Each structure stands twice: as structure tokens, then as C-alpha cells.
Amino acid sequence: TCWSYHLGATDFDSIMSKLCAEFGGVQDESKFELCDTIRIILKSYPRINFDGSVPKWLPSIQRGLRDVLLSKIGKMQRDPAIKLVAAVLEASDFDWILCDGGSEEERGKFFMILLNLVCIEVIMHLDEKKLDQMIQESDLVVACFYVLEGGVNCLVNEKINFIQESKRMQLLRFLSDGDPNISDVKERYFICALIRVLAAWLAEETAASREDVYSILPYVLKTAADTFEVQKLEKLRSLPGRGGKANYSNFSEETVLASKNQPVIHPPDTLRFLLPALCHLVTEDPSRQIFLDLKMHDTLYIYASYHWSILESYKQWLEEQVSKN
């Protein structure tokens, strides 16, 4: 990446500190331009490089976003702010929203306003629209899904009906009409974001809308298995000492294209987000039969072996580095 040189992390923090301090302080139109600038720089930095501690520039982002999202703003100002929230969530967790040290009431207000905003955006973009219409705003909708997912994780121990019935039914209806042969990368990424939100709900809610869930389960499981297949080769090729040495015989045509350095945008690990929900679903006869018919038990075995091979590869590489020294 562009930050992989020796002082990359230090330079990244310096740039982010300057931009975020300005973002938290200015009160004119440049504040909204900074939303996009900070988001682009933040997404260019590999998530794996964040060490888990709270970056010193994060509270400044929080203050700036509070100023924007708690004000009377239009779509042109709101959309960049929501996208920036999602970018921060990719690098951190939802707790950063509460890192400003304000009163519990004020922090809760920002939390709920943010979630309400993204819920409204999702409803507006999913309600009676076709996929090709929604793709035009897919970046914003996917950002909303990231925020919803973070909100679910943050509220997981609370007795709050976060995903209301109306929103849940919209997700189910949309996925029930899903095309099983989506080839467009942006459309596939959008569907993966939908499934991730649905998986967060299914992990917590084990009884509601079961017949609707059973009807879309084959499509959801097949999509999750396909996205795993797409990302598998690229990840294995990137392991220490493995680049260019993989056997492509067991991979799909799309993963072979990736091996030939043709541009492929890899979707997120959708199957990983489904695992908690599958723990509930496989205890029910209808969903368990669907699971077996699609041979998902074989897919999960391959999935576990894949992650184990990653661990073994890094372990072997570390041992080789130690032996060289």
C-alpha cells in the first residue's frame, strides 16, 4: 500500500491529526469537503495496521461529525458525513461514538440520531426500487449498512428492538427477489451488505418471520459460499512465501482471473457474518435440510481448513524468520 514504507504509520497519523483537527474546528462549507478527504485517506490505510488503541485524532472526527449530523443539513452535507462514519467503523468499533467524554444523555442522543438517520436512508433506498436504481447510490447504502451493523453489535446486550419489523420485512422481500446469477461487482457487493445486516438480526432473533427466512435461505447461503470462493485465492496468494505458487484447479473462473492480475473487487467475508445465525438455523428441520441440500457442511469444512492454512502459513513463515536470524 502507499503507507507500507518505514515511517508510513507515523506520517498517516500526522496527516490524520491535522485534517481531523481542522474538521473538528471549522464551521463552513469546507467541513463537508473534509468529510470526503478524510474518508479517502482513512480507507487507504490497511485496517490490519490499527493496533486496537484509540488514535489521537479519533475524538476530533467524533466532534466534527456531531456538529454535522446534529445540525439542520441537506442531502449534500449529510451523505459525506454518513460515508465518513462508515469508514471510521471499518477502522475502529462503534465505541468511538462515545469517546468524547460528554454526558450520558448527550452521547445517547448522538447514537440514536445517527442510527435513525441511516435507517431512514435504507428505507428510502430499498422501498419499491429495483436493483439497478439502487446501485446509483450503492456507496451510500452500503455505508448505512456498515453503521447498522455496528449499531447491532453495540446494542447486542440491550433489550431494544433495534431492527423494527418494517425494516426487517423490506430486507426479506428484497432478497426474495434476488438474482442468483449476479455478475456485476457493485451489485454483488450491495447484496453482500444486505446479507450482513440480515445476518446480524438472525443471530439475535431466532423465531420471527421463519417462513420468509426459509424462502430466502438458499439464495443467501449460495451467495455467501460464492463470495468466499471469490476472495479465497487472493488471500492465499498474499500469504508469506505463497505468492504465485497456488494450484488453481479447485477455484472458480473468477478466482483464476484474479490470479492473472485482472482487476477483481473482492466482496466481504459474508460467510463469516452468517456463522452465528447458522448456529440457530441448523437446529431447525427446514433450514437444516436446506443447509444439507446445498452441501454447506462441505463448504464450512473448506472454510475452516482455509483459515487454518492461513494460520499455519504465518506460523511457518515466522519460524523461518527466526531460524534465519
TrEMBL record:
One of its GO terms (biological process) is neuron projection development. Belongs to the neurochondrin family. InterPro entries: Neurochondrin. This is Neurochondrin -like protein. It comes from Caligus rogercresseyi (Sea louse). GO terms for cellular component: dendrite.
